[in-house]
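Hi,

I'm pasting everything inline rather than attaching a file, because the server keeps stripping attachments. The sequence lines come first, and each chain or strand is labelled.
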Amino acid sequence: MPKRISIVDVAREAGVAISSVSAALNGGPGVSEATRARVRETADRMGWVPSVRGRSLSSKRTRALGLVVQRQPGVLEADPFFAGFIGGVESVLESAGYALLLQIGRSAAAGADRLRRLALSGAVDGVFLTDVSVEDPRYALLDHLQLPAVAVNAPGSVWVSSVTQDHRSGLSALMEHLIALGHRDIAHVAGTPGLVHSEERESVWRCVLESHGLPLGPVITGDFTTEAGARAADALLGGSRVPTAVVCANDLMAIGFLSRAKALGVGVPDDVSVTGFDGVLLGAHVHPPLTTVMTLPGALGTRAAEVLLASVDGGPRVDETIAPAVVVDRASVAPPRVRMA
Amino acid sequence: MPKRISIVDVAREAGVAISSVSAALNGGPGVSEATRARVRETADRMGWVPSVRGRSLSSKRTRALGLVVQRQPGVLEADPFFAGFIGGVESVLESAGYALLLQIGRSAAAGADRLRRLALSGAVDGVFLTDVSVEDPRYALLDHLQLPAVAVNAPGSVWVSSVTQDHRSGLSALMEHLIALGHRDIAHVAGTPGLVHSEERESVWRCVLESHGLPLGPVITGDFTTEAGARAADALLGGSRVPTAVVCANDLMAIGFLSRAKALGVGVPDDVSVTGFDGVLLGAHVHPPLTTVMTLPGALGTRAAEVLLASVDGGPRVDETIAPAVVVDRASVAPPRVRMA
DNA sequence: CTGAAAGCGCTTACAG
DNA sequence: CTGAAAGCGCTTACAG
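And the predicted assembly:
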């Protein structure tokens, strides 16, 4: 094992005190340019990379940010959000010299517990909050710990900042589009109950229908998986009163719905229009290509990371917003077929 | 800011020395059961979670494992491998009390550099090596540092262990299946040049054709994206000699190919058979459902994490294997249409 | 079985 | 501008 070289070695080699090495490398004051240059050159020559262990203990900064994903590990594969979000986060952490500490909690309770240990053990300088539920217990923890945090697509709290992409206007526009085409029986395939974004989407669906004086079509409760979408198709297409349009809370469920509808011999969009939500890449490649609302997980990740980093540096609590999600009209929507009464 | 409570506070409260607290909590020897119980009770009551900063500095263990993904951040969203792999990794790290440090390098060079800094800064106890290229410079670094590491789907080195899922037999079986159906003109849409798994898949395609004395159909070089698959369709379906089957190096390219073929009015599988590789969830929902080879990124992640953890605990270098990838025959393959000569 | 002390590798006042 | 010293919160020999 090649012995690790430490700040002491560099100081000795450069003929200065370790405090000077530290100041020189960190851009601190109290070092002449000549000394700074010499130390830098020596450190580079020796290939010294400061120990994050020593540094984090004395500086109270770990230079790492935490993300505890609350999902079943197996579900993550199909999830359209996290890869994009993490990509966005990483693109800013990279230049800031921060690392991302990722953990997965199988349930909301497990996730909250892992977050608690992560925070209490001092492993991270701040955390991202995703999959926020309506009364999320993590807010209280973070408020109490005063740990910098940013909630994604959720309100934030007294202490926790937030970064949000408006999903309501895009979904609302999609609903208006369906109604303008003549749809009157519009069903909803909802997401996992209790999550902020599930409730929000269902609420938009309901509000737009009510504002037009239209009946609330049936609601099938799903869980954001393709399988749930397929089950919803069974439930909605087998009944006596088949809706003319089905608004799904995400693309995966819409794709499952599409696939099952085809198997049942129901034509999309001729017999029933189907819409998704998220804008996953593959939505453009299913048959028919899926009309949906395009979200931007990557942009959200970028902004969230910037906000969190600012917060770690002592910045104030903020609530930010990125450009709203917009409708992408492809081919899974058409005017309703005229039917017998 | 609520003052962090430390081992000193717990020791004082329990009326013992800090070394006893440490030994009691870590299950070390030299503590009576009575003391151990009392310390545990005190620590729990005070809500003390040991500082990973202090602990990692003195123990030389950070209890974190590193993964530097070499991808463009934007590409990650469509990637079928990482979410599953990370899910598998996390399921074992969770119970082991380890964390995953994730970084993204935009290129192989950037990734190697981030890995170097990660290793040299002592931020992790071991690393996963993915997207291994044919002459990967990271092996030399890891061998030199003697940092525990496990290469995924690649050979490993003198020091680095490996965990592999056999991809050759499944792809080979798929090729045999096509040939048995009567295909003689089989093209290949290859992956990013230089990567171990790109080369491997192309090599299987070539070997099976050669062993049957069949001509090597054209090879289009792609980069594993849907767009590359679409471009390959343009190149292969527009030419004078259209192959009867196209073997793509991954599902995403196959799905792009499918989509473009449909736009060009070429029927799959009637006019041309198309196959993918990976077994992404959505391959079952495209039209026609994609025949492919099913890999198991989650199982690979689980095994890789187990191997790496064993290695961190001083275990020997190993080369392990999980169950091979198998053919999933769906509907994008059929016998070739009889054509005029 | 128990406790006082050294040490991990840095940063940060503080004194020269 | 420069350097010696304390201290961050643990673990690990070592002595009692």
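The longest strand of chain B covers residues 64-70.

If the labels don't parse on your end, tell me and I'll reformat.
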